[in-house]
Design goal:
This protein has about 70 residues and is α+β, with helices and mostly antiparallel strands. The protein has two helices and four strands, in the order βαββαβ. A hairpin with a 4-residue loop joins strand 2 and strand 3.
């Protein structure tokens, strides 16, 4: 399953790499593609991961929230 989240605090390619790295380490996350321009990350999961778990995986510099469609 794929979900898209807003990520605040990304300003460069290094930020993109950090977000992908930290979120990619969360259990059941199989792929992360962050986009600095859109301030979002598309996360692919093998089974559901709670938003709170994703928030805790990121350093304080970044704020993750669910994208409302």
């Amino acid at each position: 399953m794929k979900h898209t989240y807003h990520i605040q605090g990304m300003t460069c390619g290094g930020c993109k790499a950090s977000v992908e790295k930290y979120l990619g380490q969360v259990d059941n996350v199989t792929n992360v593609v962050a986009n600095v321009q859109k301030a979002e990350a598309e996360i692919t999961m093998s089974s559901h991961v709670a938003t709170e778990d994703l928030k805790r995986a990121l350093p304080e510099k970044y704020t993750l929230s669910e994208k409302v469609v």
